[in-house]
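Render this sequence as a predicted structure.
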Amino acid sequence: MTTWGKALIDKQSGHVTDSLSLVNHAVDVASVFRELCELRSLHRALAREAVQPLTDTHLDRLAVFALLHDLGKCNRGFQARIDPKSRLRAGHIRETAALLYDDTLREGAVAALGLADMATWFVDPDTDMLHLLVAAISHHGEPAYTLDQLDAYDSEHARKLWRPDATYDPFAALAELGQAARETFPSAFEVEAEPLSLTEPLEHRFAGLLMLADWLGSHRDAFFPFHQEGSRIPWARRQAKKALAAVGLDVSGARGRLESLPSFSRIFDITADPKPLQVALADADLPPLIIAESDTGSGKTEAAILHFLALFAAGAVDGLYFALPTRVAARELYGRVLKAMNNVFGPDHPPVLLAVPGYARIDGEAADLLPDPAALWHEAEQMRRERAWSAERPKRYLAAPVAVGTIDQALLSVIQVPHAHLRAACLDRSLLVIDEVHSSDVYMRYLSRRLLARHLA
């Protein structure tokens, strides 16, 4: 019996029409995670949170834990979900509590996955490995469980889900995942590296990047179909590179075309000289926190765009998020930003998103007019859908390379809400511009200070 990770089920009959093995899905997600780690801004953020240089071996080891994110799907209850006659049903997140915290089951998991070897990768083997593993399991946007919930989830019923029966052995499935990790990232196990100190910020950043990788690695229609020619491992790495470029996370192509900053008049279609504030901000070598105060109509928006372009060309940022106090203000500003990006980069500019729920637009077109994936056949339509990936759900808005939206989308990255880690990891790439900051009330100012403190860290 092949352990499944993704399945298409006919709604009427309840029968499986197609499926993807758990190992192949795990390889897809881990490949996206590993390619995300290669992006300049995200690599820089990871290294900062780790408080130590990160080698390729360190990144491969983090990717191994990304590969194990769905290990909970190995339980018998989850695998039975594709059998319409089975009365056994279970999820795959909270069900891992019994596997990790029951002494007998944990011994079996350690042996099957080879966790004893992985524990040696950390400065604190006793706790760091478990913390990172739970962070990987929590890839659906919130903690899998808290300590006070363990007794409820580590129940006799939950333990039964992990015990083999006559037709299926969960530990054999776990062993397949462990072997896949070794085949996908051999250097993680074979190359020496300094033990990793799992700081709390690094743990949070890992969780956010894994959530992002899981979204992209599960995109069956565009990037990771259930079937491929040849080995899944090298194919998945190629598809991961393609996916990051298609949705705008990899902006190296756009940066390569920006040999020098265009003239002020070309960027903004203005036959005038830049104002002093605009000249001052058209420079990448400025402090990380800038407060620009000037009269209405004095060109603060253009100054912010010029600063972004300077930082982007220098490789200091990979994105821009304009945070405004209201939806109306965001909609009014969006057209100006889109026009500037088109003037600078041409028709192949990075995707430009209006990050306002209910009014989302990508490159000026309404996101809700995207064609159904089943109807896609034209290459241009497929490319448009790929560029609009960040527009499909608000939690992905900050993954857009250039976005104009309301400030709440950024503030949600510093509040204990689902997918805060995802939003924070995406925002790490970008220059954050908070417009009309003086209009904030006490609560908004408090959250904005938290946001700036984390973003500047």
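Summary. The longest strand covers residues 4-9. The radius of gyration is 23 Å.
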